[in-house]
């Protein structure tokens, strides 16, 4: 059984900033659109993880070390997205997405991005 904290991610309950992948939040209205926000991290490859992943890929199966690294990286990008939103006065991010690319053959760039807004309960 996998540990959800190690191999999963997402937002903590009760966070000051709501992050959703949808373009609206049922029961809320958008009072103000602040604009695009993003959180970015670039992770270099750990040589031990790379060697282990290479050996594991020969036999098949999940590359758990790489999975955990990607989860950690996405969570860090998400934290930075939330920090940017709070700093700009927002309390929600709509249309959040992740983008993952290779960074000059040195590592992996993970970007969490979306639209920062101010929302309030619909009356």
Features:
alpha+beta; Translation Initiation Factor IF3; single chain; UPF0145 protein GCM10010430_31800; 4-stranded mixed β-sheet; 4 strands; elongated; UPF0145_dom_sf; 3 helices; 123 residues; 33% helix; UPF0145_YbjQ-like
Written description of the protein model:
The chain is an alpha+beta fold. Helices cover 33% and strands 37% of the residues. A hairpin with a 3-residue loop joins β3 (92-103) and β4 (107-121). The chain is elongated, with a radius of gyration of 17 Å. Belongs to the UPF0145 family. It comes from Kitasatospora cystarginea.
Question: How are the SSEs placed, and which strands pair?
Answer:
Layout: H1 4-7, E1 18-19, E2 28-44, H2 47-59, H3 64-87, E3 92-103, E4 107-121
Parallel strand pairs: 1-3
Antiparallel strand pairs: 2-4, 3-4
């Amino acid at each position: 059984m996998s540990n959800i904290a190690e191999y999963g991610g997402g937002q903590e309950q009760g966070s000051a900033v709501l992050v959703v992948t949808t373009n609206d939040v049922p029961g809320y209205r958008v009072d103000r659109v602040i604009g695009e926000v993003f959180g970015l991290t670039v992770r270099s490859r750990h040589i031990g993880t790379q060697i282990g992943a290479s050996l594991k890929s020969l036999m098949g199966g999940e590359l758990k070390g790489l999975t955990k690294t990607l989860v950690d990286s996405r969570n860090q990008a998400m934290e930075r997205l939330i920090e940017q939103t709070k700093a700009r006065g927002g309390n929600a991010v709509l249309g959040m997405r992740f983008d993952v690319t290779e960074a000059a053959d040195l590592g992996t760039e993970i970007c969490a991005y979306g639209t920062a807004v101010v929302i309030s309960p619909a009356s």
